[in-house]
Write a structure and sequence with these properties.
The chain is of the alpha+beta class and 94 residues long. The chain has a single domain (6-89), classed as 2-Layer Sandwich (YaeB-like fold), CATH 3.30.2310. The chain has two helices and six strands. The chain has helices at 11-20, 24-33, and strands at 6-9, 37-38, 44-45, 48-55, 62-74, 78-89. Strands 1, 2, 3, 4, 5 and 6 form a six-stranded mixed beta sheet that branches. The longest helix is centred in the N-terminal third of the chain and has 10 residues, at 11-20. The model has no long low-confidence stretch (mean pLDDT 94).
Length: 94
């Protein structure tokens, strides 16, 4: 993990953040505070659960939690977020 590098967002990532109901702050917190795992094509992924308790923008059903999972590349001067997935659930963590 690299906490010193700036986090930048691709245009696609910004669109997905809005469509899927995340925020840039949640994505940044996830990258800065969670373990990284290898993703496809040399990218990385991280996942963090947030308390939610509101309707999701996807189906308007109320969920207790949302999980934010950014996919990002480690560039020389920045971490570049290429896309963001968001999962909604009412299930407690196992």
């Amino acid at each position: 993990m690299s906490e010193q590098k700036a986090i930048q967002f691709s245009e696609h990532a910004r669109e997905q953040i809005v469509l899927r109901g995340a925020s840039e702050d949640e994505v940044s917190q996830t990258i800065r505070n969670e373990l990284w795992a290898q993703a496809k094509r040399g990218k990385y992924r991280a996942k963090r659960r947030f308390a939610f308790g509101k309707p999701s923008p996807i189906n308007q059903k109320v969920y207790r939690f949302k999980e934010v999972e950014p996919i990002f590349a480690q560039e020389p001067d920045a971490l570049v977020v290429v896309t963001v997935m968001v999962y909604y659930t009412n299930e407690e963590e196992a």
